Amino acid sequence: MSDTSEDDNEISFQVKFLGRVEVVRPDGLQILDEAVESLKVNKHSSEKAAKKSKVYLFLSLSGIDILENKTKFLLYTCPLSTISFCAILPSSPKVFGFVARHPAADMYHCYLFQSKTFVISRAGLSHRGCFQSFKEGGECEGRTRPDSGGTPTQG
């Protein structure tokens, strides 16, 4: 189930957060596969086990926010300019994730989620053209990517 704001600039979903894994590259399905395998191998880790919980995933033109389900506490925020890759895992269509650059360090993290419905892929498709335009330095509904030479947006 998703909620869309009045101006269609933000969509939210309730999903299961599988975890966040540091990765060596910023993109590719192989990175997604390796991150899932890393979570399986380290499933006894208390940090990763605690992360397997329901969260709200907010997608907007400024980025992605991950909020704890019950308290609405902000767990992670990823500005759109830091997100380099997102996909649904082909071997597990209910698992999806994205890779984002850490804002203060030279590293990347893969954020993994599970959804019972296909609504995530449809939302991704509706924002895909906008996301691609934004990542290529263009504009998306009046917003310019911060490093594209336009006026920086805060995210």
Automatic annotation (TrEMBL):
Pfam families: PID. PROSITE patterns: PID. InterPro entries: Adapter_Engulfment-Domain, PH-like_dom_sf, PTB/PI_dom. Coiled coil: none annotated. Residues 11-115 form the PID domain. This is PID domain-containing protein. It comes from Dicentrarchus labrax (European seabass).
